[in-house]
Amino acid sequence: MISDRDVDAYRRDGYVVVPDVLDGTELAQLQAVIDDWIARAASVDTHDDVYDLEPSHTRAQPRVRRIKTPHKIDQRFSALVRHPNVLAVLTKLLGPDLRLHGSKLNMKAPRYGSPVEWHQDWAFYPHTNDDILAIGVMLDDMELSNGPLLVVPGSHRGPIHDHHADGVFCGAISPDLIGDEASRAVPLTGRAGSMSFHHVRLVHGSALNTSNRRRQLLLYEVAAADAWPLLGVSNLGEFDSRMIEGQPTITPRVTPVPVRMPLPPAMNQGSIYENQTGSQRRFFATADAVN
Hints:
Layout: H1 4-13, E1 15-18, H2 24-40, E2 51-53, E3 64-68, H3 70-73, H4 75-80, H5 84-94, E4 98-108, E5 116-119, E6 132-138, E7 149-151, E8 164-165, E9 168-169, H6 175-182, E10 186-188, E11 195-199, E12 204-206, E13 215-224, H7 236-241, E14 243-245, H8 272-275, H9 287-290
């Protein structure tokens, strides 16, 4: 699925976009499941183990901004990260032994959809080494107007920014610290069925969906099996059950990577959306501000 030149680009820029990883039939099967999840949100009033809701969500007008851990809810989403085309890319970027760290489905409704402030995934889950990436499965066509992922090329080779406010983790980089980098950001766009792969230390975010089309982005975080989380492993059996290719190990590979721990924990626990409410300043406009 990718060439040696693509691998070199990933090492240099911190991301690569691979077109047409999934076909129309595969996308339709996933979408049918997602449509059912959204319909079921009409019976939910607040965040729970499945749903992270937009602030304006009501039962009459369900607005879901995230489905949490979809790979645990439906087998098709568990199988997707093991798709031969996906594994072909992952093994070239991370090696033969791979572990799933987590998954989520971020959704932006037309002319709405919560933005995600600038951040580095590494700030949330530092490991013993940084052979870790996030896969962005484009379930819809991604264009600049519907709030695609924005990334800062090469920022994965730079510092780990402070993601704290008043000494407490908030999962967002202050606009005062990100201005120069944000001006270099590029959108990760493509046809539905394409996938992006971005390094765990890459600075990224996403703006409001200003189009009349929805934007659904399925995300998986995948690590080399010898990358161990610095916050600890409480259940080795569960940890190893997340292997998606190759063999687990109890010998972590430790490399000299910069780390700042996500502690003290965010005042508002839950998803990144909740964490980022603790940030005092925002870079991206929200729907309320625009409307």
